[in-house]
Structure formats: structure tokens, C-alpha cells
């Protein structure tokens, strides 16, 4: 028969040993003594485990240092022509001349398209002839009026007729200008959609004109960055067609945020003298929101998230102190600490899920 008293203590008895009353008493007493010894030994081990103090954790740490940090926001933008129009005729008519070549530079005021205007020019010549006659009549009436040879009313009628003819001539010249389509600004003209002899109306698209130097760059930014970006700030961007990083300057900000995306559209002006950039191209935009020469950066893995805030384990006098911190900008593997840490603090970087306040920690390595 076996009796297990405690780990490491086993007594084996034979059935014959318990038949004798005296031996039974001796055996029972021996068993009691052994049980007491085993219990005392177990209690001695537990006390030793509790009295040995808290377990020392070995971990790696980071010494906090201040370093310069630039806050850069990346956005997606679109290049646009600085000025752009679609050319439509003001009146219906027949095209008699097209004076531009597709895709070439034009100057402000250049005659692009001429519509038929012979009838209006003939009407203007007729009005000019009538005006000359009335001018001669008025000269004669000036002499007669001085000797009272005509009434004042007759003289005033002649003056009025001259003024009416002048107004008709001005109206005819205005009609002539409407039949001439001229460039409103310097730029590059697009493809033409009409030919000489075509009958066009006010809905007929003739061509387009774009001013490509400089270009406009429109891009959205979150509304929380509205105060961090101002007119005149530099903007850097890249396009797929070029390897270089290009630069522009912000010229305008949309005064209201988009209700759907909660973003604000900003516009930059980009020089394009060599015409390497084209309107409509996609651009990756980089905006510097600010620069902090004394930013505190620690590895992202050092942050201990809680339900209410974020904490960092700081080693002070060999023991853990859980400090509440406020984080700022995040990089790929680091996070900015705005409040809670000072340069020179030692932050534990490994085993943070096992840490407790006032726990002893032995640093095995200081990370750079």
C-alpha cells in the first residue's frame, strides 16, 4: 500500500505490517511525523518565493533626445491652365477666314476667325456718306444762322441727324467686332473644330485657348490644417512624366470646407516656362506644415495604449514609472511626444506589456 504525502515523499507498507497493533500505532505515528515534515518543507518554499522580492525584468531602452522635425503632409493635386476658355462665336454666320495654326502660341488681340461681314461694312459706308452730307449741310446752316437766314429748329434738326448717324455707325462697328473672334489673352490655341465656309451658331465650339505659363495646382488638405498653411507658403510636387521635384507657391485658399470630405481646396501657382508640364496632369503634392527644432521622437512600440490615454514606461532609479503622454505627428516607425517626456528620459522599448508601476527593470541594451 502506497501513501503520497507530498511531492518527494512516498511511503510503501505491506498488508502484513498493519496486523500487529503495536506496529500499527508506530506506523501511524511515523506517518503523522512525515506529514508534518512535508508540510513544513512546503511552507518554507512558499515563504522563500514571496520573500524573494519582485522579479527583475530585462529589457531594452531608448534615451530621449531632441531633434529637428519637419511636419510634411502629402496630398493629390491636379495641374490646371492659368487661364482657359472655349471659343464660341457671339453671333451666327459663315466663316470666311481662319487665321490660326493648331497648337501654336498666340498673342492677346490676334484675329483668330472671321465671319462674313460684307453686308455690315456696306451699311457702314452708306452711313458715312450720309454723315458727310449732313456735315456739309451743317456748315452752310452755320453761316445762315448767323444772319438769321434759317430758324434755330432747322439747325438743331441737322445736328441731331448727325448724332443719330454717328450712333448707327458705332452700332455697325460693334457688329463687325462680334464677327471677328480675337484672342482674349496670350496662350496656346488648341485643335480647331470648324473649317472655312462652315455655318456656325453661338453653340458651335470653334477651338480652345489655354495659358500654360504659369500653371495652377489645386489640391485638398484636411480642415484641421487650415491655420497651418498660408498664402505664399512653398509647395513641392512631383508628376509622372518628370523625375524632378518641382516647386510652386500658394496663391489662394478656398474660404469654405467641403461638407462631404471635410477638406479645403488650396491653389498654388507653378512656373512652366519650358512647357514641360501640361494641364490636367496628376501631381503628388508635399506641404510643409511646420518645423520643430526640438522635437522628441520615440519608437512607436514604446507607446502603451489605454482606454483613456496613452502611456510610456520611463525608467527612474531602476524602477518603472508609467507616464501619460500626448502624441503628435507619426512617422513610419516613430511618433512625436508633445507632452510628458523630457530629453534625457530613459524609455523602455521591449516587454512593455509585462511592465507594472514600480517594477524593477534591468536595461540590457540602449538603442540608438
From TrEMBL:
Protein family per UniProt: Belongs to the membrane fusion protein (MFP) (TC 8.A.1) family.
Signal peptide range in chain numbering: none
GO cellular component terms, A-Z: efflux pump complex
Claim: Magnesium is one of the keywords in the record: no
Pfam families: Beta-barrel_RND_2 (PF25954), BSH_RND (PF25917), HH_MFP_RND (PF25876), RND-MFP_C (PF25967)
Methyltransferase recorded as keyword: no
Gene3D superfamilies reported in the protein's UniProt record: 2.40.30.170, 2.40.420.20, 2.40.50.100, Helix hairpin bin (1.10.287.470)
Name of the featured protein: Membrane fusion protein (Multidrug efflux system)
NCBIfam families recorded: RND_mfp
Phylogenetic placement of the source organism: Bacteria, Pseudomonadati, Bacteroidota, Chitinophagia, Chitinophagales
Localisation per UniProt entry: Cell envelope
Source organism (scientific name): Taibaiella chishuiensis
InterPro entries found in the cross-reference section: Beta-barrel_RND_2 (IPR058792), MdtA-like_BSH (IPR058625), MdtA-like_C (IPR058627), MdtA-like_HH (IPR058624), RND_pump_MFP (IPR006143)
Positions of the Multidrug resistance protein MdtA-like C-terminal permuted SH3 domain: 294-352
Domain CusB-like beta-barrel: 218-286
Keyword annotations: Transport
The Multidrug resistance protein MdtA-like barrel-sandwich hybrid domain, residue ranges: 84-202
Xref: PANTHER family: BLL3903 PROTEIN, MULTIDRUG RESISTANCE PROTEIN MDTA
Domain annotation Multidrug resistance protein MdtA-like alpha-helical hairpin: ranges: 120-178
MF (Gene Ontology): efflux transmembrane transporter activity
Amino acid at each position: 500500500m502506497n501513501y503520497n504525502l507530498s511531492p518527494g515523499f512516498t511511503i510503501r507498507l505491506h498488508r502484513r505490517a498493519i496486523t500487529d497493533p503495536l506496529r500499527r500505532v508506530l506506523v501511524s505515528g511515523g506517518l503523522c511525523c512525515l506529514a508534518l515534515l512535508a508540510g513544513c518543507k512546503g511552507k518554507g518554499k512558499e515563504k522563500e518565493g514571496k520573500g524573494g522580492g519582485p522579479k527583475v525584468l530585462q529589457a531594452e531602452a531608448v534615451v530621449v533626445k531632441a531633434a529637428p522635425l519637419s511636419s510634411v503632409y502629402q496630398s493629390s493635386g491636379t495641374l490646371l491652365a492659368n487661364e482657359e476658355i472655349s471659343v464660341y462665336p457671339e453671333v451666327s454666320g459663315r466663316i470666311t477666314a481662319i487665321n490660326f495654326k493648331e497648337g501654336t502660341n498666340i498673342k492677346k488681340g490676334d484675329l483668330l476667325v472671321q465671319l462674313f461681314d460684307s453686308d455690315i461694312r456696306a451699311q457702314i459706308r452708306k452711313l458715312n456718306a450720309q454723315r458727310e452730307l449732313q456735315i456739309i449741310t451743317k456748315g452752310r446752316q452755320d453761316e445762315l444762322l448767323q444772319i438769321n437766314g434759317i430758324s434755330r429748329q432747322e439747325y438743331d434738326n441737322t445736328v441731331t441727324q448727325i448724332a443719330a448717324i454717328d450712333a448707327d455707325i458705332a452700332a455697325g462697328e460693334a457688329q463687325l467686332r462680334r464677327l471677328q473672334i480675337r484672342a482674349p489673352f496670350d496662350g496656346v490655341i488648341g485643335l480647331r473644330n470648324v473649317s472655312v465656309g462652315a455655318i456656325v451658331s453661338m453653340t458651335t465650339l470653334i477651338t480652345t485657348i489655354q495659358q500654360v505659363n504659369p500653371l495652377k495646382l489645386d489640391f485638398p488638405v484636411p480642415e484641421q490644417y487650415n491655420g497651418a498653411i498660408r498664402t505664399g507658403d512653398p509647395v513641392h510636387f512631383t508628376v509622372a512624366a518628370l523625375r524632378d521635384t518641382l516647386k510652386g507657391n500658394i496663391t489662394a485658399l478656398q474660404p469654405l470646407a467641403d461638407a462631404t470630405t471635410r477638406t479645403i481646396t488650396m491653389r498654388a501657382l507653378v512656373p512652366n516656362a519650358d512647357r514641360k508640364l501640361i494641364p490636367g496632369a496628376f501631381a503628388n503634392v508635399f506641404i510643409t506644415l511646420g518645423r520643430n527644432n526640438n522635437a522628441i521622437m520615440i519608437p512607436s512600440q514604446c507607446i502603451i495604449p489605454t482606454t483613456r490615454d496613452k502611456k510610456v514606461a520611463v525608467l527612474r532609479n531602476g524602477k518603472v514609472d508609467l507616464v501619460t503622454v500626448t502624441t503628435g505627428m507619426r512617422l513610419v516607425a516613430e511618433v512625436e511626444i508633445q507632452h510628458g517626456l523630457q530629453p534625457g528620459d530613459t524609455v523602455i522599448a521591449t516587454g512593455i506589456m509585462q511592465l507594472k508601476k514600480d517594477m524593477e527593470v534591468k536595461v540590457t541594451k540602449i538603442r540608438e
